[in-house]
Each structure stands twice: as C-alpha cells, then as structure tokens.
Amino acid sequence: MEPSIFSSFLHFINTDSLPDTLDQDYMALQHLMVAADRYGLDRLVLIGEDRLCRSIDVQTVATTLALAEQHQRELLKNACLGFMVSRDVLGAVAKTDGFKHLLMTCPSIMADILDKVASVMKQ
C-alpha cells in the first residue's frame, strides 16, 4: 500500500471520514477502496464505491469497471456499464488504455458490456 493511501486509510479509521484530498484524486480513491476491501472496512468500501459511481468519466470508466469486477462490487459495475451505454460513449471508452487493460484482465466483462448494449437497443 502506498504511503498516501495508508495515510488516507488511517485518517478514515480515526475520523470516520475521507480526507478532502481524495475528492480530486480518482486513482487514490480506487486504491483506498481496494485496501478497505482487503481489510474488511465495509463502510469505507461503500463510501468509496459511492464516490467512484458519482465520478465516472470516459477516461476512468474502464479501470473502474475492472476494479468493480475484481472486487465483486455490483453497484459500481452497473454504474460503469450504464455510463458506457447510456451516454453513447462506448466508442471513446474503447480507445482508452484503461479499456485495453480491462479486456486483458477481465475478458469476460465483454459479455456484460454486450448484454447492456443489447438491452439498451431493445428499448
């Protein structure tokens, strides 16, 4: 765990709140959520998941989806899939390095993406 993530982790344990610096650091928030999951801090996982859901964009959605898939976070996974198809940004997302990483680390996620696209097209 990186020192800055450990510091945020301790801050949460001591104050039951996240440091203000995490509002601007999406990757740090992802790492903090992974640490919270690893050490069983469910409240921190939920807070991190909520913040990540509200901060999804074209550049972060693929890495966030990989995180959600690897840590079985269904709310976050559904938020990512919904973002990809409801905002018609899948083409832009597919061009990111994060998407390439997603396909290499979680190839089965393509079935979920295609299912989501198909369900939107039926409407």
Automatic annotation (TrEMBL):
Metabolic or biological pathway: Protein modification; protein ubiquitination
UniProt cross-references to SUPFAM superfamilies, sorted A to Z: POZ domain
Gene3D superfamilies per UniProt: 1.25.40.420, Potassium Channel Kv1.1, Chain A
BPM/SPOP BACK domain: residues covered: 60-114
Gene Ontology biological process terms in this record: protein ubiquitination
InterPro entries: BACK_BPM_SPOP, BPM1-6, SKP1/BTB/POZ_sf
PANTHER family, alphabetized: BTB/POZ AND MATH DOMAIN-CONTAINING PROTEIN 1, OS04G0625500 PROTEIN
Similarity comment: Belongs to the Tdpoz family.
Protein name, entry field: BPM/SPOP BACK domain-containing protein
